[in-house]
Amino acid sequence: MNRSDNDRKILLKSQQGELDAVLMYQALAEVVKDTKDADTFRKLAAEEGRHAAVFHGLTNENLKPKKTLAVLMPILYKIIGKKRLYPLIAKGEYAAAENYAPVAEKFSVIESVRKDETRHGDTVAGLL
């Protein structure tokens, strides 16, 4: 299938976001006080890793995760607490699902990733 430059840009950005989310969830799992939250974040990290692999299958690009969110989120957790941080994370998951919509129509393999992102948002929101 022919990929437009725009599709490619979305796929690469999505792949990067998934990789970054793996590190973010792993980092949060290390600092959160609630063990249920930590377990949930470890599971989400693993799923984000699978998502990154889906996008990698479409881009064939090897990207490196950026540590920005993995550094920032644990600090925010300590400063603003989970009641204010978790809704922001959930919002990010819902936004990812929205952002994937245009490419999910063209690459059916992304539809399950899109559904997972919505579920991730619900999961993180549900920790409150």
Automatic annotation (TrEMBL):
<dbReference type="Pfam" id="PF02915">
    <property type="entry name" value="Rubrerythrin"/>
</dbReference>
<dbReference type="InterPro" id="IPR003251">
    <property type="entry name" value="Rr_diiron-bd_dom"/>
</dbReference>
<protein>
    <submittedName>
        <fullName>Ferritin family protein</fullName>
    </submittedName>
</protein>
<feature type="domain" description="Rubrerythrin diiron-binding">
    <location>
        <begin position="9"/>
        <end position="122"/>
    </location>
</feature>
<dbReference type="InterPro" id="IPR009078">
    <property type="entry name" value="Ferritin-like_SF"/>
</dbReference>
<dbReference type="InterPro" id="IPR012347">
    <property type="entry name" value="Ferritin-like"/>
</dbReference>
